[in-house]
Design brief:
Helices cover 29% and strands 21% of the residues. By secondary structure, it is α/β, with parallel strands linked by helices. It has three domains: 78-167 and 365-379, 3-Layer(aba) Sandwich (Rossmann fold), CATH 3.40.50; 171-351, Rossmann fold (3-Layer(aba) Sandwich); 394-616, D-3-phosphoglycerate dehydrogenase, domain 3 (60s Ribosomal Protein L30, Chain: A, 2-Layer Sandwich), CATH 3.30.1330. A seven-stranded parallel beta sheet has the order 9-8-7-10-11-12-13, sandwiched between helices. Strand 21 and strand 22 (585-592) form a beta hairpin. The radius of gyration is 32 Å and the shape is elongated. The two termini are 33 Å apart. Residues 148-149, 169, 172-173, 176, 221-227, 244-248, 276-279, 282-283, 304-306, 330-331, 354, 356-357 line the site of 1,4-dihydronicotinamide adenine dinucleotide (NAI).
Length: 618
């Protein structure tokens, strides 16, 4: 065989699922498995072979972007449904999972079951606490809230345990709004009290004289999905509707003839107040002695949001003093409330047992919405209704999928290049893109690099949910930089670089001129490639394992290292050589399917021209 120096070499083979669409490149070179014994090099000393990969490009379906795909290979994931869920949703779940429905479990019973579950589906009645995540022992990957409010889920604990929380935010909106209107009208006309009186054999027409809705001012507190539907309906009843919501766009309110006003103006000028904000630390007990005192005397209050936004003792006082004439409540701080609750028993209070979402239609819709979100998450997709992870539209995900794979692999390679004892503190990620800054969502990529950096050196499980939290907890400072790239804006990124500052490397050539470990990768034809190690340009597809060798640039190196690997039946899937100049230093990057044994690696290290080498697992 002539002594020809290889600059790049592709050993391409179809993946089992490969089919070659006409637009996709096909084999540039086909060689038998036992490379290099029968290798026939190209005759040009400058270009050996064009590097073309024919592995199937990464698609979102192949990719556990959320990092929560059910881990149990070959068995269906298990979903525990702890509260009544519509049959249509259960059907969706059964198509992909083992479903266990166990209602009315005590916290202890739930903790006992949870270690065997990959997902849990709840409504408002189940408290998903830190203790529950702890009891899950790491297996619980998804909590599905079959409804809107997630105040019964400890979101911080979910983040720390890398558990994705998804909800079903739209299917019960109308049901909740209709229930709000039902309570408004029932309260104004004393329907519940009059009904109880007639059933008790009385006929008290003068006692139950109501008030009219038409012409009255209604303040909608929280102008989101439910609040705006309530407003729309109240306008149909002839009410003057104002709203308070610090985050709602004024033009959306204006479009349905509603004026957004301050909190104080809303509560002090209205005859009726309807609550539709979520329970958060900022909204807890916002209706209290002080705020009731600002209300118009005789105001009437409806609450289909959450009991906790009202200080219930203060409401009893306001009802007793007549500041609040009536209240209609679907929700309570404690559910169910105590039997002797003064609030529930108050004659001017109408109550329902958290029925806002309880219509046949809403329950069917919510069940399907949550089942699809949970199944999608268990398949590793990022749910559009994720509460504690970035919500990324499906088309953006599809585009970013191969970059997410690249990002994780760059992280994995980078951390393996760090010499033992030098802890990583600062990570800089550089994204080169021809697009505008806000056109590439890098949150997923950052999470995947973090995953790649942390998982090989620890027992923690990192995913899109907990990546930032875990990085922070471990004192890993991650900075991101965007640089312009003169490539095509049709692709989101030209390349990604990972820089690790202040560390030593066990492969000195991975240190760039600026003293950091530097790796760069690109996506080519949907396949992630390593394109830069330190200051050396290489080009090797990132599939399984990589051997990096620094050598004096000279003929025969690929052949020599290749035959050491070939003798041990280690299959080479990609190779490339980057050098500083003819006959100077070169880096050979070799992609291998199998992990060579220690003896084989030692032999590579003993090849006279090899100055240093590293074996890296992907
Ligand atoms: N009783 C029941 O069965 C049901 C209750 N709900 C509850 O209704 C509430 C609203 O649900 P959606 O409209 O679907 O949610 P949403 O998220 O669409 O709307 C909530 C709105 O509240 C606003 N908000 C946040 N903080 C606020 C504050 N301090 N003051 C005023 N507004 C504030 C937000 O900007 C948002 O526009 C949630 O708490 C939910 O749990 C929802 C469905 C059924
Ligand atoms: O969706 C919500 O926020 C609700 O409050 C509905 O609760 P539920 O699912 O009926 O327990």
């Amino acid at each position: 065989m002539a002594a020809i120096s290889f600059k790049a070499l592709a050993v391409a083979r179809p993946s089992p699922s490969f089919s070659s669409p006409s637009s996709r490149p096909v084999f540039a070179l086909s060689v038998p498995r036992r490379f290099p014994a029968q290798l026939v090099p190209h005759r040009s000393p400058r270009i050996c072979c064009s590097a073309v990969s024919v592995s199937a490009p990464v698609s979102v379906a192949d990719l556990d972007i959320a990092g929560v795909a059910a881990a149990v290979v070959g068995t269906k994931p298990t979903v525990l449904v702890s509260e009544k869920l519509g049959e249509a949703g259960l059907e969706v779940l059964r198509g992909f999972t083992n479903v266990e429905c166990a209602y009315n479990l005590s916290p202890e019973e739930l903790r006992a079951k949870i270690p065997l579950c990959d997902a849990l589906i709840v409504r408002s009645g189940t408290k998903v606490t830190r203790e529950l995540f702890e009891a899950a022992g790491g297996r619980l990957k998804v909590v599905g809230r079959a409804g809107v409010g997630i105040d019964n889920v400890d979101l911080q604990a979910a983040i720390e345990f890398g558990c994705l929380v998804v909800n079903a935010p739209t299917a019960n909106t109308v049901a909740a709004a209709e229930h709000g209107i039902a309570l408004l009208a029932a309260m104004a006309r004393n329907v519940a009290q009059a009904d109880a009186s007639v059933k008790a054999g009385k006929w008290q027409r003068n006692k139950f004289v109501g008030v009219s809705l038409v012409g009255k001012t209604l303040a909608v507190m929280g102008f989101g999905k439910v609040g705006s539907e309530v407003a729309r309906r109240a306008k149909g009843l002839g009410m003057h509707v104002i709203a308070h919501d610090p985050y709602a766009p004024a033009d959306r309110a204006r479009a349905i003839g509603v004026e957004l006003v301050s909190f104080d103006e809303a509560i002090s000028t209205s005859d009726f107040i309807s609550l539709h904000m979520p329970l958060t630390p900022a909204t807890a007990k916002v209706f209290n002695d002080e705020t009731f005192a600002k209300m118009k005397k005789g105001v009437r209050i409806v609450n289909v949001a959450r009991g906790g936004v009202i200080d219930e003792d203060a409401l009893v006082r306001a009802l007793d003093s007549g500041t609040v004439a009536q209240a209609a409540l679907d929700v309570f701080t404690e559910e169910p409330p105590a039997k002797d609750s003064k609030l529930v028993q108050h004659p001017n209070v109408t109550v329902t047992p958290h029925l806002g979402a309880s219509t046949v239609e809403a329950q069917e819709g919510v069940a399907i919405e949550i089942a699809e979100a949970v199944v999608g998450a268990l398949k590793g997709e990022l749910a559009a209704t994720a509460v504690n992870a970035p919500m990324v539209p499906a088309e953006v995900l599809a585009e970013l999928a191969p970059y997410a794979v690249l990002a994780e692999k760059l992280g994995r390679l980078a951390v393996q290049l760090v010499a033992g004892g030098s802890g990583i503190k600062g990570v800089k990620i550089v994204y080169a893109s021809a697009r505008d800054t806000d056109e590439v969502d890098t949150r997923i990529l950052r999470a995947m690099i973090t995953k790649g950096l942390i998982e090989p050196i620890s027992s923690v499980f990192v995913n899109i949910v907990n990546a930032d939290y875990i990085a922070k907890e471990r004192g890993l400072r991650i900075s991101e930089e965007r640089i312009p790239h003169d490539g095509s804006p049709d692709v989101p990124l030209g390349f990604i670089q990972v820089h690790l500052a202040g560390v030593e490397s066990k492969f000195a050539s991975a240190i760039s001129d600026s003293g950091e470990i530097r790796l760069e990768g690109k996506v080519k034809d949907g396949i992630p490639h390593l394109t830069l190690v330190g200051s050396f340009g290489v080009d090797v597809s990132l599939e399984r394992n990589i051997i990096l060798c620094r050598q004096v640039d000279q003929p025969g190196m690929i052949g020599r290292v290749g035959s050491i690997l070939g003798d041990k039946n280690v299959n080479v899937n990609f190779m490339s050589v980057g050098r500083t100049g003819l006959g100077k230093q070169a880096i050979m990057a070799i992609g291998v399917d199998e992990e060579p044994d220690k003896e084989t690696l030692k032999k590579i290290g003993q090849v006279p021209a090899v100055e240093e080498f590293a074996f890296l697992k992907l």
